[in-house]
């Protein structure tokens, strides 16, 4: 991991991580909710992408960050670009893994149904992911990572919590994998508007280089 860090609401994120090749932190933000005028923060998010992603987004060169953030086609292209993608999610507020799993399940299932891709195979694959999260407890500062290797249609999810062994699952249904990615990276429909704005800003700057 890179020695340089970016602080996302007091949580340090390395500016670069090395998997098969270096991936850059090109977006970050939080998930939160306002309850009785109080902001409750749930997670901090870092989105790491192969810098070559800009080769697949050239048609948006010259567009402002605001234009990109509002453009669904831009995020479709980002999701489908055949490059490595990696999400690092750090927990602020303790919750049961089952609560997170239910949110993921609902979002992924709705997106699959909307795209007319929710068949028996998808239901089974999604069920396994939900079961995986049900066995976990998200303490403060525990970490969930999603690794989406380029062009393979798979996701490797790892949960890291201090004092415990890492817990892993591989998801091999390409439709479920795509919709999990979209949960975080789907423009105006993404779970974290702050992350979407940040991605648009960073990629707009990269495209103008």
Task: Set down the secondary structure blueprint.
Layout: E1 5-8, E2 11-14, E3 16-18, E4 22-35, E5 38-49, H1 65-69, H2 72-80, E6 85-91, E7 95-96, H3 97-114, H4 120-134, E8 137-138, E9 143-148, E10 155-160, E11 167-171, H5 174-185, H6 193-207
Antiparallel strand pairs: 1-2, 3-4, 4-5, 5-6, 6-9, 7-8, 9-10, 10-11
Helix pairs in contact: 2-5, 3-4, 3-5
Strand content: 25-35%
Helix count, DSSP H or I runs of 4 or more residues: 6
- Decide which structural class fits the backbone: alpha+beta
CATH topology: Chalcone isomerase
What separation lies between the terminal Cα atoms? 25 Å
> What string gives the helices and strands in order?
EEEEEHHEEHHEEEEHH
Report on the architecture of this protein:
This protein has 209 residues and is of the alpha+beta class. The chain has one domain (5-52, 81-185): Chalcone isomerase. 35% of the residues lie in helices and 31% in strands. The protein has six helices and eleven strands. The strands form three sheets. It has a seven-stranded antiparallel sheet with strand order 3-4-5-6-9-10-11. The protein has a two-stranded antiparallel sheet with strand order 1-2. The longest helix has 18 residues, at 97-114. The protein is globular and about 45 Å long. The mean pLDDT is 92. InterPro entries: Chalcone_isomerase, Chalcone_isomerase_3-sand, Chalcone_isomerase_bundle_sf, Chalcone_isomerase_sf, CHI3-like.
């Amino acid at each position: 991991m890179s020695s340089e860090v970016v602080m996302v609401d007091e949580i340090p994120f390395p500016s670069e991580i090395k998997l098969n090749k270096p991936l850059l932190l090109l977006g970050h933000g939080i998930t939160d909710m306002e309850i009785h005028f109080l902001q409750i923060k749930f997670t901090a998010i870092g989105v790491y992408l192969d810098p070559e992603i800009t080769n697949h987004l050239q048609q948006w060169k010259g567009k402002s960050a605001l234009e990109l953030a509002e453009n669904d086609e831009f995020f479709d292209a980002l999701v489908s670009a055949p490059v490595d993608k990696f999400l690092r999610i750090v927990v602020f507020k303790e919750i049961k893994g089952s609560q997170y799993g239910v949110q993921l399940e609902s979002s992924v299932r709705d997106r699959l149904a909307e795209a007319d891709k929710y068949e028996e195979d998808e239901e089974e694959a999604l069920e396994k992911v939900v079961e995986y999260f049900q066995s976990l407890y998200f303490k403060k500062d525990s970490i969930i990572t999603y690794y989406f290797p380029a062009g393979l249609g798979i996701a490797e999810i790892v949960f890291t919590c201090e004092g415990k062994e890492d817990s892993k699952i591989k998801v091999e249904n390409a439709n479920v994998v795509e919709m999990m990615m979209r949960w975080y990276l789907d423009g105006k429909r993404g779970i974290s508007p702050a992350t979407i704005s940040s991605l648009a800003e960073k990629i707009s700057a990269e495209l103008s280089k």
